[in-house]
Amino acid sequence: MSDLGLLSYYLGIEVQQSSESITLCQTGYARKILEKLGMGECNPCSIPMEPRMKMNKHGNGEPTVDKTLYRSVIGSLRYLVNTRSDIAYSIGVMSRYMETPTTSHLTAVKQILRYVKGTLSFGCVYKKLSNMELVGFSDSDMAEDIDDRKSTTGVSYYLGVNPITWVSQKQKVVALSSCEAEYIATTVGTCQGVWLDRILSNISQLQVKPKLNVDNKSAIALTKNSVYHDRNEQLADILTKPLAMLTSGN
Fold first, then answer.
1. What is the pLDDT of residues 225-246, one digit of tens each?
2. Which one, 12, 45, 157, 247, has least CB within 10 Å?
């Protein structure tokens, strides 16, 4: 066994270490993705996706594009999300159209790539911590998917100021209200908190009580009192199990 020094590169992830922080980025990997579509010299843009963009599986009657190329670019971008939480949502949305991608889908993906071009140096910075508080945030839209009217969950967790996990995913059921959509997102966030709590206690014997921030008053009230009406009662019965795990400390 030999000492090769500090880690500087691992599976496409560039690692910069100092006495105060560790930085993870994928600048070189991102450039390769741009070159795959011939966009190495493209003009950058400031946002990865237009606000309130409406997209569906069939496009607007446009011709289809090369499925293999589209899927390859999406797969590459999904790996880039490992250090780029800022594109997790937009990549998640465009991943829904890999079966029959059209020119409008590819145009939206190219906007993500133009955003990546302007933010090549972005990544994750992990600083020394004096505060080991585990804080999470959950949110949801409401039935934004035109094809099946399902909502999208977003969750992220920070240890102190350091981002350690994030997820953007379409919900598995159709929420009938913004309260239900937010409550489902809260459940995903709670499960993430339970998982992180167990990992931290196993690797460092660190007892951290996860805190999850939710911005919907009805969803917060539902977690505290699950007996509303029939629909919410059934929903709460299924989804409060992770909350009970945190409460009981299991």
1. 755 545 555 555 555 555 555 5
2. 247
